[in-house]
Amino acid sequence: MSGSPPGKILANTHFELDNEGTLETIFQSIEILSKEKGIDPQIVLDAVKDAMLIAARKHYRSTEDYVADMDPKTGAIKLYAVKKVVEAVEDPSHEMTLAEARRIDSTAEVGGEVRIPKNTDALGRISAQTAKQVIFQKVREAERETVFNEYSGRTGELVNCTIKRVEGPDYILDLGKTEAKLPKKEQSRLEGYSVGDRVRCIIKLVDKSSKGPGVLVSRAAPELVMRLFEQEVPEIYDGTVAIRGCAREAGERTKIAVQSRDRDVDSVGACVGMKGMRVQSIIRELRGEKIDIIEYSEDSVVFATHALSPAKVSRITVIDPLEKHMEVIVDDSQLSLAIGKKGQNVRLAAKLLGWKIDIKSEEEKRQEVESQMAALVAPGAPVSVLIDYGMAEEMAVKLLENGVATIEKLGAMTPEELEVLPGIGPESVEGIQTAVVAYYSQFEDPASENAVSETAGSENTEQATAETTFETASEPAPADDDLYNPESGEERFEPGSEAAEAVSEEESESTEQFGTIVDAGSPHKQTDMAVPESTPEKGSGE
């Protein structure tokens, strides 16, 4: 809370309480101090009374119990020493006889307490200065408590401040009722201020135990960008568009993820604004800091693709969903863009997603796969690799214990040799062999398989050709009397000629009169006959 410090208000106040003007000055100072600090006047009154007690003990150098009273109307302060009334005094500093007590208070009784007035005129300036320090300390404690109660619930809130003074690399800001501190680590590298400048900050921390300003503000927090978007974008303010995350490196770049709750509202377009007016206003407030507005997705792979923009992602593989670890493959030309300047793009994307992201180019991934394949086929591949091919982990341990450390050595062993190994047994041999076969099957040459397939296909083709030839050869040759003999007197006509058509008409008329005549002796003309369906024999398998 701004205003004059307690020491300045009480600078001309003396504790020579025999003067009515001085009493009035003290009381007025208390009222002014209470109003400026925004604390309860009773707290200040209690602080003054405590200061009087400390000053009295220091002046009288006594262990007596003291109490101080102040009249809130007149401001008069009275100091008393409190003693207990007893029959026999054992501790003169805290006890007194009934007779002595009756001289001070006629109503005193044994077991009660008596207040003995003390002369405050004897309190010197040293004691008064001590009292002022106590008042100052008490007021500061009350002020911190008031500030904490007012601002502790406002963490993350955007506030308007004024630069009040500069303390080294830090700025002290005026919040109106109190002061706030803007430390170096909470400043953007693009920004610099002078006394009197107005800035907007985020309340980051409120600490009542701090000796300096109890409110810590920030210009580097991601919440600053989020609050600015809430002010500039009406759709965010009314809840149509929600901010789902924000990652920031102050003065460099910010990535903010947004999601629309209305299918008719484009979340990214709403934040950008017409011709970029909305986002440009925020960029000016942040002194030119770059801002990427990203469409949020529940699918981590899709969200990662958006978060790594402007780079184009080829594919993403989730390595471990529990540990939130993924691998991103990009084209060789996109690798530097995906990583960003000093790793900034991928670093911000990882913060936004909350995932660990490994970025590799297509060439790097190809080399990695080739090296892994080479390691698998190289002599001495460990038997532990077979766990990925179905072999139990306990079997891998047993093989290692029996000196079988490589797949090459394991593949050279016979089933009988495996069975006699301790801890293996016949029941485990089959599982081990299956894993070995599955392991080596991945290295089979597909070209050889195609060659075998082509060979089989050619054999089938030859067989089909032979069958066709056989069937063709088995057809009966046409009878000699069916062949045309030029020397015979038989007339033959070209198909489609007028003579041929006349003969055809004569044959059709004969057919209508006498029906179709079938030559039973001609084999090739039997096809025109209706063949009755044969009844299948029993047991032939219908």
Automatic annotation (TrEMBL):
Q: Which UniProt keywords apply?
A: Cytoplasm, RNA-binding, Transcription, Transcription antitermination, Transcription regulation, Transcription termination
Q: Which GO terms describe its biological process?
A: DNA-templated transcription termination; transcription antitermination
Q: Where is this region: Disordered?
A: 448-542
Q: Which GO terms describe its cellular component?
A: cytosol
The record's annotation in SUPFAM superfamilies points to: Nucleic acid-binding proteins, Prokaryotic type KH domain (KH-domain type II), Rad51 N-terminal domain-like, Transcription factor NusA, N-terminal domain
* Molecular functions per Gene Ontology: DNA-binding transcription factor activity; nucleotide binding; RNA binding
Specify the S1 motif domain's residue ranges: 154-220
InterPro entries referenced in this protein's UniProt entry, alphabetically? DNA_repair_Rad51/TF_NusA_a-hlx (IPR010995), KH_dom (IPR004087), KH_dom-like_a/b (IPR015946), KH_NusA_2nd (IPR058582), KH_sf_prok-type (IPR009019), NA-bd_OB-fold (IPR012340), NusA_N_sf (IPR036555), S1_domain (IPR003029)
Q: Which domain of life is it from?
A: Bacteria
Its subcellular locations are: Cytoplasm
Pfam families named among the record's database cross-references: KH_NusA_1st, KH_NusA_2nd, NusA_N
Q: Where is the composition biased (Low complexity)?
A: 459-477
| K Homology domain sequence ranges | 250-323, 324-378
Q: Which SMART domains match?
A: KH (SM00322), S1 (SM00316)
Q: Describe the family membership recorded for this protein in Swiss-Prot or TrEMBL.
A: Belongs to the NusA family.
Q: What does the record give as the function of this protein? A: Participates in both transcription termination and antitermination.
Q: Which HAMAP family does the record associate with it? A: NusA_B (MF_00945_B)
NCBIfam families attached here? Answer: NusA
Provide the assembly information: Monomer. Binds directly to the core enzyme of the DNA-dependent RNA polymerase and to nascent RNA.
**Mind telling me what this protein is named?**
Transcription termination/antitermination protein NusA
Species of provenance: Solibacter usitatus (strain Ellin6076)
